[in-house]
């Protein structure tokens, strides 16, 4: 499994992420995974016209594959 590492993150953004983790009862790894996934879905919808169908299909397959990755140990 690939670790999610965020370097030099803005303290305000880090606090927002931590608050989501606390509110949901998720560990940091799961929180980052869910936020990344949700952000990708939102961004895909916004920029779909910028991707051709093959690119959208490949990106969707990659996102689906991430769902099968075993959970990590968190931070």
Task: Please describe what this structure looks like.
By secondary structure, the protein is mostly helical. It has a domain at 32-70. Helix content is 64%, strand content 0%. The chain has 3 helices and no strands. It has helices spanning 11-24, 28-47, 53-66. The longest helix has 20 residues, at 28-47. The model has no long low-confidence stretch (mean pLDDT 84).
What spatial form do the alpha-carbon principal axes imply? globular
Report the order of strands and helices.
Answer: HHH
Strand content: under 5%
Secondary structure category: mainly alpha
- What is the radius of gyration? 14 Å
- Helix-residue proportion: 55-70%
Number of strands: 0
What is the makeup of the main sheet?
none
Which spans have pLDDT < 50 for at least 5 consecutive residues? none
Tell me the span between the first and last alpha carbons. Answer: 14 Å
Task: Sum up the structure in keywords.
75 residues, mainly alpha, 0% strand
Describe the structure concisely for a colleague:
The protein has 75 residues and is mainly α.
List the helices and strands and how they pair.
Blueprint: H1 11-24, H2 28-47, H3 53-66
Helix pairs in contact: 1-2
């Amino acid at each position: 499994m690939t670790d999610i590492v965020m370097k030099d993150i803005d303290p305000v953004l880090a606090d927002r992420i931590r608050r989501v983790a606390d509110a949901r009862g998720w560990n940091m790894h799961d929180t980052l995974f869910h936020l990344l996934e949700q952000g990708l879905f939102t961004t895909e919808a916004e920029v779909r016209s910028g991707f051709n169908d093959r690119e959208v299909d490949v990106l969707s397959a990659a996102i689906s594959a991430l769902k099968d990755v075993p959970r990590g140990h968190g931070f």
